Amino acid sequence: MSNVNVRRAVENIRSGTNVYTPLVETIVNAIQAIEAGSAEKGLVDILVKRSNQEELEGGQPPVESFTVIDNGVGFNDENRDSFDTLYSDHKIAHGGKGFGRFTCLKYFDDLLIESVFEGEEGRKKRAFKMGKQTDIIVSENIEDCPDGEIGSRVTMRKAKRAFPDKKVKTIARTLVERLLPYFIDADYQCPEIGIAEEDGTGRIILNNFVSNQLAAMIKEIPLQDGGIVFGSGDKEQTFQVRVFKLYSPRNQKSKISLVADRREVTDTAIHSFVPEFVDEFFEEGSGGGEDRDRNYIVKAYVFGPYLDANVSLERGGFEFPKGDDLLHPISQAEIEQAAANIARDALGDTITARQEKKRTQVRGYIDDSAPWHRTISEEIDLSSMPYNPTPEQIETVFQKEKFAQEVAIRQQVTQMLNETDAAGLKDGLPKILDQISKTSRNDLIHYIALRKHVLTLFGKSFELTDDQRYPSEGTVHDIIFPRKGDSAATAYEDHNLWIIDERLNFTNFVSSDRPLDGGATERPDLLVFDKPVLFRGDNEASNPITVFEFKKPGRDDFVNPSSKEDPVQQIIRYVNNVKKGKFKTPKGRQIQVADNTPFYGYVMCEITEKVKEWLKMEKDFKPMPDGGGWFNWFGNNNLYMEVLSWDKVLRDAEMRNSVFFHKLGID
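The line above is the sequence of ATP-binding protein; the predicted structure tokens follow.
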């Protein structure tokens, strides 16, 4: 009689197991019982019992129970006592943990055993249940059975949760994948393992999945070298990898399976290490039958004494860590990475073609959307980038690489300055400067490419919309400079004044569509006070002041005699108010002007025939040679003014930037 808290033992089973775990454990126990017996031909039969509940639309009822029958040595006294002992070491030589039977009660309501064995007093039959309280064996009964066939019948009755698969063929394939090491060992004769419905119909022999390629479902890929070695000397650990194609993958992913004592313990997606394995593979055939076109996945099985020695109690994982750990010389991730590399090499040209496809996608993204990444793309490692990456995923990888390069450069510069004398600095400086140049060039290319996109949007902003109306002047205004803002809150990289004049990138004070005195008075669309970077001096009277006025594309009613929106007069009025000292900078400083402070005025509008007549006859403006603009000099105001068509502004901006676009291949 045992005294074990069975319920707590079952509750404490860790993750890593699933409903197939107890079935695999029971089959392995049957195999080991056959190995210990004297049967001429080992035989394991798995019977599938289904629920009595009818399925809608005539589908198969769900699987409810399993019975595993073998012709092994049976539950003799020695095996019975081992079953009744928690953590029994009876099968330790075969990798037994003495705990596998407890997983049965985690996933099934009952575990029932019937067995015929040869005892000292003749052939006996033993039957019992696995207890759920303090006794591991309950309801035991032993009787004489002189004519019984030696072997065992183990039933896992009534799954606690719906079994995930219904088809016997699907269950058979899953079991083959879990037990494949038993079938592929050339030095081992595996018993015949079959699975069928409860009445014996539809029997499938699992061994045939490998031995005669049942429908060619599983095929091994020959390897030149499937060995893995970690460490050296006394600490050396060796592993062996075997790679298989699994056809008709049923939406499964390619996996790396770590094996202990001939049983699959863990499976990890290979694409976690080699992204090109994320999708199924395709094999083109030349005919029908086994030589037809088929999809497949890859499964790499890893064997080794290190795995056998460190498998967990429940066989759902290993005692060594998944990641790096100072206390363990080898991690699960290291083993899986090495196995993934072997699987990658095993597929050879197939993986190479996928990698090239990914590189083509990356090159296309760079050519179409991100030419500033070309310098980085020459050096970046794309192996970790997902297969069939989205633009966002590509950009993320490049941003990480750019940041890593910038960090490395800063570290090198700091180290050089701290540790190198003048002579050494001279020798090492060119290499670092070259790296700095690359990252700076990347930023410049990015900036220029963004200009191309801005000009495209700018051109569309004064085109007719679908309802044959022109956008408001606010649309084009916001592209050039955000409304209701000023340079105190808008950085130079957040506006596009360069569309009008490159010098306007460097401004100290910009007011956009806001009263300059903070009240509700008149407001110019843009008033620019130049930064000393270009003209020297900060808020000095000698620095020019520029005023802009925008008019809605397609509109020319501002030239009517009754209009109160004459843009030429508005700019002159703004200039005079600035001269009179009515306005201050955002910091409250008086805008400094003198009699000789130069002023520039720009009007952007649609230049129709009506506007041309108005400029010529009423405003005394002169046409520019290209016909896209008009100009005039107002001497008394020290004001030079241009009236420009939207098309001319766009055309001139494109012309100034065209050589850069051409060099980038985005023209």
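Note on the example: DSSP finds 17 helices and 23 strands in the chain. The CA atoms of residues 152 and 401 lie 61 Å apart.
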